Amino acid sequence: MIYCIDSHTFIWAIKEQADEHDAHRLSEADKFLKWVKAGKHQIMLPTIVLAECLIKEPPENHTEILIRAHKTCMVVNFDERCALKYGELLRLEKWSLAKQVQKENDIRREKMKLDHMILCCALVNGANGIFTEDSELIKFAEPHIKVLSMPNIGHQEEFVFSEYKTKI
User: Fold this and answer.
1) Are 119 and 137 in contact (CB under 8 A)?
2) What is the DSSP string of the chain?
3) Which pLDDT score, from 0 to 100, does residue 93 have?
4) How far apart are CA 111 and CA 129, in angstroms?
5) What confidence tens digit (pLDDT) does each residue in 115-141 have?
6) Who contacts 75 (Cβ-Cβ below 8 Å, separation ≥6)?
7) CATH, range 2-150
8) d(CA 14, CA 65)
9) How far is Cα 49 from Cα 35, in angstroms, rounded to an integer?
10) 122 touches 134 (CB < 8 A)
C-alpha cells in the first residue's frame, strides 16, 4: 500500500521534530515508521509538503532533510498529470462546492489550492490513503481518498491500523 503524508506526519516521522505540546507524537511516528516497514508499505511525500516543511529550516539543514526524505519516502512532484487532476477536481461545477467548504470553514483561498494540490499528488500517484492532522485538508480530501490519522498506539505489542493488523 502507498500512503501519502502531510506536513505534520513528515515533521514528526522524518524530521523527528515536535514542539512541547506534540512531543508524544515522536514515539507514535517511530511506531508508524515501523508499521510501514513491517507491512512493506510506501510513504509518498508530495514536493509541495516538502517545500512547506523546509520554510522554517535554515538552508544548511536542507540537504540533510532531503536525504532523509528520499531515504524514507517516495517523493512526488506536482506535474502535468496532477495539473489535469486539479483541473478535473476544481472545474466550474465542483469549484462552487470547494468554495462553499472554504467559506463555511473560513479557509484561505491559497490554503484551499495547496490542499487540493497535495490531494492531486496523492490521487495521481496511486496513494491508498493520506495521513494528515490538517482539518482543512481532511474536509477537501475525504470525498476522494481515505483520510487517516497517525494513531496513538502507545506501548502495545500489537495494534490494528485501519483494516490492517501488524505486530511491532
Assistant:
1) yes
2) -EEEE-HHHHHHHTS----GGGTTHHHHHHHHHHHHHHTT-EEEEEHHHHHHHHTTS-HHHHHHHHHHHHHHSEEE---HHHHHHHHHHTSHHHHHHHHHHHHHTT--HHHHHHHHHHHHHHHHTT-SEEE---HHHHHHHTTTSEEE-----TT-SEEEETTEEEE-
3) 53
4) 20
5) 999 999 999 999 999 999 998 899 889
6) 45, 46, 47, 50, 69
7) 3.40.50.1010
8) 8
9) 22
10) no
Among positive and negative, which fits the CA dihedral 62, 112, 74, 155? positive
Which three three-digit cell numbers place residue 58?
535554515
Low-confidence ranges of the chain (pLDDT < 70): 92-97, 151-168
Q: Which three cell numbers stand for residue 37?
A: 516497514
Distances (CA, A) of 136 to 31, 45, 62, 104: 25, 18, 27, 11
What's the rounded Cα separation, in Å, for the pair 16 and 27?
9
What confidence score (pLDDT) does residue 158 get? Answer: 46
Is beta strand 129-131 parallel, antiparallel or unpaired with respect to 146-148?
Answer: parallel
User: Cα dist. 166→33, 60, 151 in Å?
Assistant: 12, 38, 13
Domain boundaries of the chain, sorted by first residue: 2-150
